[in-house]
Structures are given as C-alpha cells and as structure tokens.
Design brief:
- The complex is a heterodimer.
- By secondary structure, chain A is an alpha/beta fold.
- Helix content of chain A is 39%, strand content 17%.
- In chain A, the strands form five sheets. Chain A has a seven-stranded mixed β-sheet with strand order 4-10-9-8-7-5-6, with helices on both faces.
- In chain A, strand 5, helix 5 and strand 6 form a beta-alpha-beta unit.
- Chain A is globular and about 70 Å long.
- The chains are: A alpha/beta, B alpha+beta.
C-alpha cells in the first residue's frame, strides 16, 4: 500500500495553487506526469555539480557526467528487466522510438506486399510513422478493430496476422479507453506467423510492472515524462540481434567508430542510434524517476491506481448523462474518458479548471479512435500515485456544477 | 468560483443558436475544423446585387464558445458589404462575446470568423465580375 500523504509530499507542484486560493487537482497524468523532488534534485545536481558533455572528455566532470548518464541506463534496464542495458536506446520520447524503428528497421525490411499491423486504438505516435514508411516502401498498413466496449476485437486476428505481416505494433494500455490489452498473448501470436512485435508501453511502464524478457517483445517504447521523469527523454528497447542488424537512424557525432572523407563505421550499441550530444540531465532524471517508482514498488503503484480507477468509474457513472468509454474498471489502467450529453469536452475542461482540476479535453492524439466512435472529442481524467478519492469527489462536484451552468 | 465566461447569453445561444442551418443558393460556403477540439463550422452566405450580405447561415458542432461566436458573428454581418466582411476585425467579435478567454479558447471563439473570411476571399466581387464581363 502507498502512504498517499507521504507520496503527495514528494511532489512539490501539489503545494501550488491552480488559481489564487484554489488547490491544484491534477488529473492529467496520462498526458504528462508531475515530477517528484528526487527527480528534480537529480537534474539540478547534475547542472550544479558536474555539468559536462558525455563520452568524450578526459576531465573529471565529463567522467562524472558519463557515469551518471550510463548508470541511469543500467537502472532503467533493470526497471523493465532488460537483459542488457546496451539494448536500451535513449530517444526523445516514445514517438521518436516508433520513428526510429520505422525508418531504420522498416526501411531495411519492408517492401511491396508486406504488411504492418497496428490497432484502431493507437496513439498517433504508433500510426503516423507506419503510414509514412508503408507509403514509402509500398507496404500495407492494417488495423485490428476494437469492439464496442473498447477492447480489441480479435475475432479476425488469424486473418489480419498472416505470413505477410512483418511487424505487429500495438499499445499495452490504451491512452483513451484505458484498456489493458492481452500483450503477451498478442506478442506470441505475432511470433507464430514470423512477425516481430513492438509494444507502445507509454501507458504501461509508468503504471505497472513490465518485464520485457517475460513478454518476449522485440521492441518496446516509452516516454520519461509520463513516469515522473523529465520531457525530452524516452526509451526504445530492442532485442540485441535486431538492433545490431539495423542501420543507424541519424548520423553525427557519438554514433561513429571512425569517420573518413569517404565513409564511416558505426559505434556499438547503444551509441549507434544516439547521434549528437544527448539529453544528459534528462537521462539522469529518468534514472531518478525509476529509482523513485521502484522505491514505491510498481505493484503498489498499480494497486493504488486500480483502487482509484474503480472509485472514479463508479462515481462518474452516477452523473446523469455521463457515459464512460472503454471497458469495466477491472480491465482498465488509470484513465477514464467520458462524454456528457449536452456538454462539449472543452466547456467541461474550462469549468472544472476553475475548480483547480486539470483534465484533458479533445481527441487525446487518437483521432481515428474518436472517429470510429462518432465523437469529436472526449474529456479524460487520468490518475497516478498521488491521486486521492477526495480529488475524485471534487471532480464529481465540479462536473455537476458544469451541468448546472448548462441548465442540464 | 464563478465561471464567468459562461454568462447567460452564451448559454442561451448554445441552446438556441441564431442563423443555424444551410443555404441552398449561396454565393459562398466554407467549412473548417479546429483539430484541437474537433469543432466544425460551415458558413453559407448569399449576397444581394450590391454585394451586401442578404442571407447567412451557419452549421456545425462544437463547444459553447465557438457556437455562440458563430451566432453572434452571423447576426452582426447581415447587410454588410463583402469588403466589410473581409475586413471584419477579430477584436470586434471578441467584444461581442464579451467574456474573458484564455489563449486556447480564443481559437474556439475565432473559428467562425476564420471560416467566414476564408469563404469571402474565395469568391470574386460580383461588381468586379460585372466589370470584367
């Protein structure tokens, strides 16, 4: 169990008022999480005590920076149980991880007649790079549909996943429905037809234990800023033999072994994919974030979110005219997206903001999903380690106030 | 806390929009959406022989601010010349709404004006056309 009051003290921003006299109730962690003090401090410490470039200097500061930055990679690797930290590529965010695989692996391995399979509940980050590379290589992009309840409709999976499928890329947890997909089963299905499996873990790694060896996924992507870490940082995990066979994504310094006028040879993993001076403070910050989450215990993080999600889904359901999209609470991660009849999502977000409550209104970077549902936008409340039942109660009061303003 | 942007008139217009619908015989019609929130607005305008707005209608869906703004704008431009429509100032529309808006919501408020202007620039003046003929 999390000691929620103690956890809340770890997040300096929770002491901030959203408006004068109105405390902040942050229910938008699925978009970007807040940062606990240890993460902020670790980054400040780098800038104040040992700021220098990594992997090149002989001097003491550069060595300290390199050690901290590479040591963070080791701890992040342990956090997802990767066998080797060289299989973790530092990227800017999950979006860049998808682009890296699309442009490096996709360009080398996709051709006319090949298929890439994704699902209808993907974030744009796991749609657009595949659209672009499939168009370039003459491959076909196909979608696993979702059912009415926001779970994947796997009835035709045998046909969608076939010997032409080169890659099946899907989200572990939907950022709109909250659906926790049967990740391991889908990875095994992809492997059964000889396809690779890539996991969008942006909404799973921050919220529940994830073990890439148990999953046996080929690639896995997540963003630092959704898991208590800084922006500008993310991870692509890939199996060593795949990463080694892939050409570099970007060229420049840090990714080479030797450069001559005619040609270059490339550095070993992971640096082959890390051209240019990286986000050093951010790597150190993500290292501090996984330390923080590990100190809470990911089982505890997950259990707390399950408790809050159950509570929120039940409380929201009692609001007249409110419809939650997605599966029952037992099958969902810490998000609840909903619509209220007669109230536009933007108006809802504006009114609850006056009560200090931050929610997301819009399509949550999942326009195809909303189009399939016939919705232009929804309101989404999302939860994290610091969310309390009292905050959910205040959201309910505020939503009822919004209904009142609109004479509903 | 009061939510001052939702004054009575805004809610009234959200419930009972003015000039809502489509015109079959329009001189111009234009439609656009705000991808941020999915709001969509279409505006149809019919001009008289002097290039003045004879009839105007709008349709679409969206938040209370974009909807109220479309009602107020279409009401305001009735009888205006094409030139006046083209030079309609955004601050005039924001004043008509008369509520303080954050930057994100200003986009909602100005969607109807953006649609109207894009449509009005898409056609030549009838006067110009007559001269050219």
């Amino acid at each position: 169990m999390l000691n929620i009051n103690k956890v809340r003290e770890d997040f300096p921003i929770l002491q901030v008022e959203a408006h004068p006299g109105v405390p902040l109730i942050y229910l938008d962690s699925a978009a970007s999480s807040q940062k606990p003090a240890p993460v902020i401090n670790a980054m400040n410490q780098y800038y104040e005590m040992y700021n220098a470039n990594v992997h090149r200097g002989i001097h003491a500061l550069s060595e300290a920076a390199t050690n901290a930055y590479e040591n963070a990679r080791e701890r992040i690797a342990k956090f997802i149980n990767a066998p080797d930290s060289a299989e973790l590529i530092y990227v800017r965010n999950a979006t860049e991880a998808f682009n890296l695989v699309a442009y490096s692996w996709g360009r080398a391995n996709l051709g006319p007649g090949d298929e890439v399979l994704i699902t209808e509940m993907e974030h744009h980050a796991n749609i657009v790079p595949w659209q672009m590379i499939c168009a370039e290589k003459g491959a076909t992009l196909r979608y696993v549909p979702f059912a009415e309840d926001g779970t994947l409709d796997l009835a035709n999976l045998d046909e969608l996943l076939n010997d032409k499928t080169k890659l099946f890329s899907f989200t572990a947890v939907s950022n709109v429905f909250g659906t926790v997909n049967p990740t391991k089963k889908l990875i095994d299905s992809a492997h059964a037809v000889g396809a690779l499996a890539m996991i969008d873990a942006a909404q799973s790694v921050p919220h529940m234990p994830v073990d890439v060896q148990a999953l046996n996924c080929d690639f896995l992507a997540f963003s630092s800023h959704k898991m208590c870490g800084p922006t500008g940082m993310g991870i692509l995990y890939g199996k060593r033999e795949l990463l080694e066979a892939m050409p570099p994504f970007m060229g420049g310094g840090d990714m080479i072994r030797r450069v001559s006028m005619e040609k270059s040879t490339y550095a070993d993993l992971p640096h082959k994919f890390e051209a240019g001076t990286p986000s050093i403070a951010e790597g150190i910050g993500l290292g501090a974030a996984v330390d923080y989450l590990s100190s809470l215990g990911m089982e505890n993080v997950h259990a707390h979110e399950q408790f809050i999600t159950n509570y929120a889904v039940e409380a929201l359901s009692e609001i007249q005219g409110l419809k939650i999209i997605g599966p029952p609470a037992a099958q969902r991660g810490g998000v609840a997206a909903f619509e209220i009849e007669g109230l536009h999502a933007h108006d809802i977000a504006e009114i609850v903001d006056k009560d200090g409550i931050a929610v997301r209104a819009g399509h949550h970077c999942a326009m195809p999903l909303h189009k399939r549902l016939g919705l232009s936008s929804t309101t989404r409340a999302s939860f994290y380690v610091h969310t309390t039942t009292e905050e959910i109660d205040k959201l309910i009061v505020s939503l009822n106030r919004a209904r009142g303003i609109f004479r509903l | 806390m009061d939510s001052s942007i939702y004054r009575e008139q805004i809610i009234d217009l959200y419930e009972n929009p003015l000039n809502f619908g489509e015109l079959e015989n329009h001189d111009f019609s234009y439609e656009e959406d705000n991808p941020l929130c999915g709001d969509e607005i279409r505006i149809d305008v019919k001009l008289d022989e002097n290039d003045r707005v004879a009839e105007v209608a709008w349709s679409g869906e969206g938040c209370a601010i974009s909807q109220a703004s479309a009602s107020l704008l279409t009401e305001e431009i009735k009888g205006m010349s094409l030139e006046q429509v083209r030079s309609f100032d955004k601050d005039t529309l924001l004043e008509l709404l008369g509520v303080p808006l954050s930057m994100a919501r200003v986009k909602c408020a100005l969607l109807s004006l953006k649609v109207l202007k894009a449509g009005s620039y898409g056609i030549p003046d009838k006067g110009e056309m007559r001269k050219n003929q």
